Structures are given as structure tokens and as C-alpha cells.
Automatic annotation (TrEMBL):
It is a multi-pass membrane protein. The lineage of its organism: Bacteria, Pseudomonadati, Pseudomonadota, Alphaproteobacteria, Sphingomonadales. Residues 30-160 form the VTT domain. This is VTT domain-containing protein. One of its GO terms (cellular component) is plasma membrane. The keyword Disulfide bond does not apply.
Length: 201
């Protein structure tokens, strides 16, 4: 995958960085922990501007977040509740869970949205409740820019500073990301196995 990412950045420059970070939000196994350090290394070599690298990465991430936000707005809360009534086990949610999730998310969105952008898997998922519960774009976009900006800048600057050793970022963060993704998947299957609809509401 490293060669593919490197070739895309080499051939498309800033557009390639933005595209890769957009795809990373759609398909989490594409690692931002490799994309942005490699792009930062390209800036250190003088092939690209560091500011351009960071802005491209952040723009791609925000675009990916907006994609899932838009999909979730189309789904909307009413449709989600209908799905929960029919397929609650696979969503691991019932109507009461959705109400509790909405209450929690609306109270904590100011830190939940930016914080999620530094956690693999959650970078993609956090846009879904934001869209489902119709968080205004004027709030969602700045929060997403804050979180994605911190993450992409940290990775890009690390690659810039490390130079040819840029892949050390992925070497150390990559296994941690894989563990987090595996834990999220295991938690989902645990929820499926233990799911019991709450009939009290």
C-alpha cells in the first residue's frame, strides 16, 4: 500500500493527498498514519509546500466527514427508528437507545466530534450521529476542522521532521490503530450477541 500511496502523492500532489484522506474516511483501512507522514516527507524534500500538504489533508478529511454526514441526514432519525424496530439486533439499538444516544450526543458534541478524529474508526463513525440528529453544519464543520486539523497536522509535521524515517509514524501508530479497530469490531459483535430490546419505553 505504501507504494500506491507514494505514487498517487507523487503524480497528483495536493489533489492526491486530499483524495487519499477523503478515501481514508470512507474506507478506514486506508491509513492516514501513512498518508500524511509521507506527504510531510515530500514537503521536507521540497517537492510540495508544507502548508499545502496540511491544508490538502484537512480538506480531504472534512470532505469525507461531510459525505457521511450527508448520508446520515438522508437516513434521518425517523428512518433509523424504523430500522431499529425491524433490525434492532444488527444495529444494536432500540428506540430507547436512540433517544439516549441523541441526548448524550447533543450534550457532548463539542468535544465528541473533534476528539473522535484522532481515533481510528471513530473518525468515520462520528459523522453519522451528527447527521442523524441534524447537528447544524455551521457547528459540525468547525468542530470537524478542529479535530481533523489537529490530527492531520500532527501526522504531517511528524513526517516533515522525521524525513526519510517518515514510515516510523505508521510503524508505531499502525499497530495501535489495528488494535483499536479490532476492539471496536469485537465490541459490536458483543453488542449483537447481548442485544435485548428494551420494551419499557
Amino acid at each position: 500500500m505504501t507504494n500506491w500511496i507514494s505514487d498517487l502523492v507523487e503524480s497528483m500532489g495536493y489533489l492526491g493527498i486530499g483524495l487519499l484522506m477523503f478515501l481514508e474516511n470512507l474506507f478506514p483501512p486506508i491509513p492516514s498514519e501513512l498518508i500524511m507522514p509521507l506527504a510531510g516527507y515530500s514537503a521536507a524534500q521540497g517537492k510540495l509546500s508544507l502548508v499545502g500538504v496540511l491544508l490538502s489533508g484537512m480538506t480531504g478529511t472534512v470532505a469525507g466527514a461531510l459525505f457521511w454526514y450527508s448520508v446520515a441526514r438522508i437516513v434521518n432519525e425517523e428512518r433509523l427508528r424504523r430500522w431499529a424496530d425491524r433490525h434492532g439486533r444488527w444495529l444494536t439499538l432500540d428506540g430507547n437507545d436512540i433517544s439516549r444516544l441523541e441526548d448524550w450526543f447533543c450534550r457532548h458534541r463539542n468535544w465528541a466530534v473533534p476528539s473522535a478524529h484522532v481515533i481510528p474508526g471513530l473518525r468515520t463513525l462520528i459523522s453519522i450521529p451528527a447527521g442523524i440528529f441534524e447537528i447544524p453544519l455551521v457547528r459540525f464543520i468547525p468542530l470537524t476542522i478542529l479535530g481533523s486539523g489537529l490530527w492531520t497536522c500532527a501526522l504531517g509535521l511528524a513526517g516533515y521532521a522525521l524525513g526519510e524515517r517518515f514510515d516510523a509514524v505508521d510503524r508505531y501508530l499502525g499497530p495501535a490503530s489495528s488494535i483499536i479497530m479490532a476492539c471496536l469490531l469485537a465490541f459490536y459483535f458483543w453488542r449483537v450477541a447481548r442485544f435485548r430490546p428494551d420494551r419499557s419505553g
